[in-house]
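Hi team,

As requested, here is the filled-out complex form for the manganese (II) ion run. I kept the field names the same as last time so the parser does not choke. Let me know if anything looks off before we queue the next batch.

— J.
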Amino acid sequence: MGAEDRLREYRGKRDFGRTREPSGRRAPAGAGPRFVVQIHDARRMHFDFRLQVDDVLKSWSVPKGPSDDPHDKRLAVPTEDHPLEYEHFEGVIPAGEYGGGTVIVWDRGTYEPLSHDRGGRPVAFAESLERGHATFRLHGSKLHGEYALTRFRGGRGDDAEEAWLLVRKGPGRTGGHGTPDPRRARSVRTGRTLAQVAAEGGEE
Ligand code: MN
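And here is what came back:
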């Protein structure tokens, strides 16, 4: 399935004459795979965690955001695939539009797929996600180290809405700072807070 098909749901939810989010018509070049974590002050504040898999960003909504404490199990609910250039999106989605609210790029960088099967053999990352358990090492400006995404509900013929957990693996930072307050957090792109982006109407 090409990016055009995979992005149908993403495009169907949005009016690109009104929102400045990317439509995904361009396929940016560059070394991957990439990851991005955005903070999205929508109806409910949440973090959007996205991993590049081939030519799209696989996406999860993480209400409390990723933690660097291995004891924290963070709920992650899958959302539609996003285009690769969504990594750069920071601004205001108009009220009344899908996901209306302010978005900042909290962190981004590259990741190393680490998924393997029970016998320790490497597994293609996309396949590990389909199976419901993927491990990877993040190289971001804020997030570093190994994480796992594990599906605990739905998927594979189960009609329940899918739900996953995002957990820091390895030594991590127990008792560390966990996740910052989203209202005080700053964009890794522009240093701005959500309030500053909202006040500037998303203009850069
Ligand atoms: Mn969102």
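Two things worth flagging: The first strand starts at residue 34 and ends at 41. DSSP finds four helices and nine strands in the chain.

Thanks,
J.
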